[in-house]
Specification:
By secondary structure, the chain is mainly alpha-helical. The protein contains seven helices and four strands, in the order ααααβαβαββα.
Length: 159
Amino acid sequence: MDELRRGLRLCGGNVTRFVRDVDILLKDSSDWHAIAFAIFAFEELGRYKMLKDLQESTVEGSTVMVNQSCLRNHVYKQQVARGLMSPEETKLFDGSFWKALGGNFRDADTFASHQVRMDCMYVDLKNGKWDSGVPVNPELIRKFCASIISALNNLGGPF
């Protein structure tokens, strides 16, 4: 149980560090990497929730069994974290922005996902052209991070 509490502290601390890193990256206009780090924080929130649930269901002094495959599955951790926030809080880009400007670059909203994290973190060859990133709105990234911290605080310490 002590090791589980240690894992919770480390995981919670990791969430807050990722969010601080997002702020630094946004100040440097590195929006795509900021999104990737925000989604890392989101995944760690999911991991924290899984560990917190395990802690609450374990009797003090008993052996704790951690399903490590769940802790390493990016998509699953995001699903768990998504259960702590409204869909609107996971929006990173509002497609109506371009419509309001009269453009047609992108008309769909962008939400936190494993694919968005991958698109923002790495350069990739898509349909014969090099590509990196997705449309971004720094203010929505900040709101996303604030919602992550709020969800973490709602789960309680230690972190």
